[in-house]
Specification:
- 44% of the residues are buried.
- Strands 1-2-3-4-5-6-7-8 form an eight-stranded parallel beta barrel, surrounded by seven helices.
- Helix 1 packs across helix 11.
- With 250 residues, the protein is of the alpha/beta class.
- The chain has one domain: Alpha-Beta Barrel (TIM Barrel).
- It is globular, with a radius of gyration of 17 Å.
- It binds 2-phosphoglycolic acid.
- 2-phosphoglycolic acid binds next to strand 8.
Length: 250
């Protein structure tokens, strides 16, 4: 992989005023570094202001945390892919563990969202990951393969436009992160899933997420199979997010 992706998932935090003050502090002294991209996933109401703010900054991209696959209509509370795109989003988080486990999103729905995002020329960041009991029962790879199976039927060109985040459910927001070696094993399996489908080795970035913080980011990112990080809690404060985004810079 030639680039490293640092993705911030703000979840239900940082509405427009907070997003603005975060960016004031975060961008103060920001310098683009080749080989790394910063992706921000603010809540829907903040997409436009964040996108406008970073529009002229190379290496920074804004995404939506969720979308609905229908183009428009009577779907109260939902956000269409084109609305997200018009607001400035270029990527969409799909199948985040909180969508799956708090809001009951199914694999089928996840697959429809991935296709809707691809159809509108945006990048789906598909999240996969096992629960603690699935892990304890040795089912990690079976779960990951089931979650990836929603991509079956997509052609090689579409598959090559996807980004994956491996986020073990037991590591999200808990302070417990997978060891780099454990994450590396799952990442290798994901990379090989894509290779078996004809996507050239390493084209699809696989990010790690789950309790990434300034203290462990270096160790995780030094694992070969980890192409970037998806960060929740530690991306909410400009200083800790700056520290993570600076990993690997001297
Ligand atoms: P966390 O969240 O960094 O707070 O564990 C990661 C995520 O949910 O994407």
């Amino acid at each position: 992989m030639t680039k490293t992706i640092f993705a911030a998932n703000w979840k239900m935090n940082h509405g427009p005023p907070d997003a603005g003050s975060f960016l004031d502090r975060f961008l103060d002294g920001y310098q683009q570094e080749s080989g790394r991209e910063l992706w921000f996933f603010p809540p829907a109401v903040s997409i436009q202001s964040v996108a406008q703010r970073v529009a002229r900054l190379p290496g920074i991209l804004v995404g939506a945390q969720n979308v609905y696959w229908e183009p428009k209509g009577a779907f109260t509370g939902e956000l269409s892919v084109s609305m997200a795109k018009d607001a400035g989003a270029r990527a969409v988080l799909v199948g985040h563990s909180e969508r799956r486990h708090v809001f009951g999103e199914t694999d089928d729905e996840t697959g429809r969202k991935v296709r809707a995002v691809l159809d509108s020329a945006m990048t789906p960041l598909l999240c996969v990951g096992e629960t603690l009991s699935e892990r304890d029962n040795g089912k990690t790879l079976a779960v990951i393969h089931r979650q990836l199976a929603v991509l079956d039927g997509l052609d090689g060109e579409s598959l090559a436009r996807i980004v994956i985040a491996y986020e073990p459910v037991w590591a999200i927001g808990t302070g417990k992160n997978a060891t780099p070696a454990d994450a590396g094993t799952v990442h290798a399996a994901i990379h090989s899933w894509f290779e078996k489908r004809g996507v050239v080795g390493g084209t699809v970035p696989v990010l790690y997420g789950g309790s990434v913080k300034p203290e462990n980011a270096q160790e995780l990112l030094s694992e070969d199979e980890i192409d970037g990080v998806l960060v929740g809690g530690a991306s909410l404060e400009p200083k800790s997010w700056q520290a993570i985004c600076a990993v690997g810079l001297d």
